[in-house]
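Data availability (excerpt). The following record was deposited with the supplementary files.
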Amino acid sequence: MFLYYILAAVAGAALALAIYILVSRSASKGRADAIIEKAKLEAESIKQQKILQAKEKFLQLKGEHENFVNNKNNELRDRENNIKSREGQLKQQQGELDRRQHDLDSQKGQVNALKTKLDAKLEECERVTAQVNKELENIAGMSAEDARKMLVENMKAEARSEAQAFINDTMDEARLNAAKEAKRIVINTIQRTATETAIENAVTTFPIENDEVKGRIIGREGRNIRALEAATGVEIVVDDTPDAILLSAFDPVRREVARLALHQLVIDGRIHPARIEEVVTKVSKQLEDEILETGKRTCIDMGIHGLNLELVKLIGRMKYRSSYGQNLLQHSREVANICAIMAAELNLNPKIARRAGLLHDIGKVSDLDPELPHALLGAKLAEQYKERPEICNAVGAHHEEMEMTSIYSPLVLVADAISGARPGARREVIESYIKRLRGMEDLAASYPGVTKSYAIQAGRELRVIVGAEEVSDDQAARLSTDIAQRIQDEMTYPGQVKITVIRETRSVAIAK
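Predicted structure:
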């Protein structure tokens, strides 16, 4: 660094000399001398400054180096002191270990001496025991081995007797406790479950504002009301009841479609056969969406997630289905809650039990394979839509139509019985009535050319709609007679059943 400053000073002097030469060539001699003198002075000043700076930098670096060396010396001195201190500690610990080793050697000698004395005592005890055993054998007249065998046999017989008595007492107590516990769980479950009574009926009342609206619904010569009945399969009763029209059908879905369609037609004001068919089709689609929404809302309320969309739709359809007068959706929710409560009491998974309880009657609302019992059909649907095996078995076995392999199967069976057997839950007259009407409709629908069939007037009339292209007028007349004969031969019904076959020809053209 010092050399750098010296070189800088020399460079400055050379620069000054160069300036001097240039000045001497372009100016007068006197002026050049002055400039040269000035340059020499400036060069000397710069030289002195650089020398001073170099000395200061040298002294600074020297001080820093001395401080670094002193710090390293102090660190080495501290480390040396620590090493000496540790050596002293190690020597002290070594002395302590030597002392303990000496104590252990001393104790080992004492233990060996005691062991020798103990061995001597044991030999003496064995000798005395052998002598005593020999005297006992002489007195008892049998050897020690025979006595040992006799004692072992006696102890085995006594142990067997006590064990059998304990097993019998335990099993009796278990049976008693199990019966009490089962009764307690069922009673607590019933008490903790809110229930409703069966209030399903086959009539819906549609309110209207005045008789003018009633006349528009009937239409000219009754064509509007006939079109509405043909489109929905619901009997529309217009009588002297003020401000009301009665919608009669055993199928709640049909009644709901008819009610919603009437509501939209009355609000819109345009009531004629073509508009009626359009509104009924639209309302049917809206009802399908509402069924899906009902299924989703039910799953959310019950805390059930991950169900296949088709199963969700089937759950929504339960709202419009009844079993012996008991609403099927309410019944399934009730069974699900009962299953969950009993599963929690038994330390089982309440979520699986609730899921199985909600799905146990889905076979009743499915249109697939109607000849299969609803429990087996429900199990088939659950398996088809990837439900867990224990849930499929619980659904299929809740009427004992398949073997129970899941722990949740008896829970669903018991919960279904509890929900259906409680007072006010069901009315068997309604169920048999609905089965009879549905049987009439299925019988009529089995004939070729039949597009729709509706049982109305509480089963006293069966309306059959046929395709004009497939069935002639003469065939329609014969069809009504054939259906009446089959109903008379195959079904049981009160009173008379009127069979009406409707054949309608339509011509449609479009102006473009």
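Summary of structural features: The two ends are 105 Å apart (CA to CA).
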